[in-house]
Amino acid sequence: MAQCELNMNVPTLGDVKNWKVFKMKFEIYINAMGVKEDRKSAMLLFGMGEIGIELLEPLKLSMQTEYSVLIQKFEEHFLSKVNLNFERYIFFNTKMKPDQKFIDYIVGLQNKSKDCGFDNLRDSLIVTQLICGMNNDVLREKLLREKDVDLTKATEMCKLFECNKAHLQVMKQGFSGEYVEEDTTVMIDMIKQDSHKYKDNTNSMIKGCRFCGYDHEVKRCPAYGKTCNNCGRLNHF
């Protein structure tokens, strides 16, 4: 990747992904600099350097070609290099890693689907691969039971599932000083602030429990395993 005078990476021939990045950065640049329409073509060719000049003749373009036509022809040239079958193979073989968060997996699928040519089916196929590629059978079953689940709903269900999982871990630990994962420490601190101090032993009492509202012994919360009637989440009333 060569460096142009505009301090942007210039894509090489057949370099699809970097063309998209270059195009986005270039359009941000000309908008920020207030480049006039009649100077955009020259600025684009200058920014692309030798690559842009080499493409003029085979694409039947010139330095006088309007910017909208020039950028469209360059776009078609670079996108024509996409191997849809290969990109789709990569997408449909993307599995969720053991320690990967659901939101990270979803974002990864969104990025990989950009060059697959799914068009209007893109979100639907992301949901399909999310269900097929996730590593949790419980959540997979819940998603399969849902009718007409779209990407937004599937994402929210994944977030809620991870949140409930964190709640369960917090309640199992009982705030007795035992080790918990880093993701749950903020929740623990918040609950500790709302609860009265108690001694660290099996007979300790929690007063005004944040989950159930009652006083009870540590690890004896009556809300554990229950579903809230208001929000539908687990482990609180």
UniProtKB/TrEMBL annotation:
Q: Which PANTHER family match?
A: ANK_REP_REGION DOMAIN-CONTAINING PROTEIN-RELATED, RETROTRANSPOSON GAG DOMAIN-CONTAINING PROTEIN
Q: What is this protein called?
A: Uncharacterized protein LOC113473226
Q: Which organism is it from?
A: Diaphorina citri (Asian citrus psyllid)
Which gene is transcribed and translated to give this protein? Answer: LOC113473226
